[in-house]
Structure formats: structure tokens, C-alpha cells
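Hi U.,

Before I forget, here's the chain from the pilot set. I'm dumping it here mostly so it's searchable later in email.
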Amino acid sequence: MKNTGTYQKHHMKVALLKPGKSPDDAVSYCPISLLSTTSKLIEQALLRSLSDIIKDILPAEQAGFCPKRNCCDQVASLTSHTEAGLQRKLKTGIALVDLSSAYYTI
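Structure:
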């Protein structure tokens, strides 16, 4: 276990078999870390303490992991920037990355 400051973060690592995958193949497993209740309580207290500071630091374009912000906000922002660029006769480009397979949910 790694010392993360003034308290020891206790966790247990578990490998879960992905649905429909062969148990004989190592890539068929998804590693997760189960945290202790104490660690979760301390992290929640820190989150509450730092959330006001963090929202002042994050750029307005940040929507991921921000309360009350979602994909619709990002689409609306992209649309308004694109329209503004078209009105000023500017070229607009976009690069989209699909990260849906990068995360495994239980």
C-alpha cells in the first residue's frame, strides 16, 4: 500500500471477468480497486472542501467531472463557436475521440 500523506489508503485489488469473455485470457479481466470506508469518507470531505476552489481554477470549457455540466453543454458550445466562425468566414475543424471503450463499467 502506498502512503498518501497523513493517512494510509487501504484498498484491495480485484480482477473481474468481463461479460462474455474467456476466463483463460488475461485481457478478459478488468482490475478494480476496492477502497475502505475510511478512505472514502476522507476523500468526500476533501472534495467538499476543495470544490469551491477547483471550480474557479477549471476553464469554462471543462465539462467532464463537473457538477451540472454534461455533453449537451459541450454540443451547445461547439455549435455556437462554429456558427460564430462561419459568420466571420473562418474555417472550422473538429477532432472527435470516442473513449467509450476506454472505460469499463460494472
